[in-house]
Structures are given as C-alpha cells and as structure tokens.
Amino acid sequence: xxxxxxxxxxxxxxxxxxxxxxxxxxxxxxxxxxxxxxxxxxxxxxxxxxxxxxxxxxxxxxxxxxxxxxxxxxxxxxxxxxxxxxxxxxxxxxxxxxxxxxxxxxxxxxxxxxxxxxxxxxxxxxxxxxxxxxxxxxxxxxxxxxxxxxxxxxxxxxxxxxxxxxxxxxxxxxxxxxxxxxxxxxxxxxxxxxxxxxxxxxxxxxxxxxxxxxxxxxxxxxxxxxxxxxxxxxxxxxxxxxxxxxxx
Length: 248
What we know:
This protein has helices at 84-100, 108-122, 127-142, 182-185, 198-206, 212-230, 236-247, and strands at residues 5-18, 22-29, 33-39, 57-63, 68-78, 163-167, 171-174, 195-197. The chain has 248 residues and is of the alpha+beta class.
C-alpha cells in the first residue's frame, strides 16, 4: 500500500478528466514507482495543481493507502514540452511505463533514465537510440533483461560472424547454421524466429545503433521481450506513431 508522501519527486505520465473538476493522474515517482491518484480542483485552478501535464517533473504530496491516493499538491518543478515525432516518442514511453510497471514497483533507476530520455527527446536527439536505450533499461528493471556478451547456453563469448537465436528474457544462443542475413532474418514477421549476427548483438549491447540492421534487430528483440510483460495489452501510441510515419 502506498504510504503518504510530501513533495515526492515524480513525473506525470498520464492525466485524464474525472468528474467535473478533478483528474486522475499516473505518476512515476522516485521512491514509490508508479502511483495513481486523484487530483481535485484541477479545472478550478487550485493552487499547487498547475501544469499537471504529461512529461512534467513535479513535487507531489498525497494521502491515502490504496491504489488510488488523494493528491493534495502537485507542483511543477521542471515542465517539459515535446513536439512532432519527439512528442509521439515521449507518449510511447509514458504508455509503456503505465502498462508494464505494477503499482509501487521499485523504479528509482527508471526515474533517472526517463528524465534523461525526455531531455534527449527535447533536444532533438535521434529517436531510435533514445527509445532502444530506455526499453533495454526497462527490461533490465523488470527482470526481462538480456545478456549481450555471452552465449546463454555455452557461456562462450558472442562471436561477430556467427548466427544466434534469441532466448527472450535471457539472451542469445549460437545456431548451427552460417551467418544470418541481418536485414531479413532479424524477424521480418511479427512472430518469426529472431536470428541475429554476433556483431549486431555486440552493437546493441554497447548501444551502437548507427547501422540500420542493428536498429531493426534491436526494435524487434526488445519488442518481443516487452510483449511478455504486456501480456496481450496493446500499445496505442505504437500504432499512432506508425501511422504518422506512413503519412509523413
């Protein structure tokens, strides 16, 4: 059960209207992980409730011990505004956190990583490395992280010119066949076997996303791993972002 808090560092992940003048907010907090709460008097402009918008860093105070606390004050510390593709990317991160983090699940490392991601998005950084880096950290914190340096079956180092299959939640294992074709065999279909070259695995492990096939492989590997935690829940922002790209 969530304990009462005073000026808890938090980020606003989501806000939706509740009754006439209130709102329900989803917060990513430093000490308590994800916290849901009711903020009363939002539309009336009550003092201490300004700028309760997604991406804003706030100091939140609440009472209550259930899964839905009463937020007494939610003061903006560092408002963040994103636009264009960065806005869609930020909304994707927010939805990902809301749908994968359980209430009160420890998230101190994610709190800092999320802040870094927002700063990078706001500065116009390359979206792919930002998103993949955050997805990887999220998987690590949820217990679904992957080992990128050794074969999970043999313990041997990953070799650049060998082909590897993916063991979701663990890492990669060497396949008996020859080198994989990075573009085609990284998983052209949603549920096709994921096969990567060793050098692609090493690149993902070091966060080197300069190669197009590495970006594609990382997206599919992390997406497949996140599906386990999502347990059938769809990410609407992923579909919206895909539609935006097609229309661009």
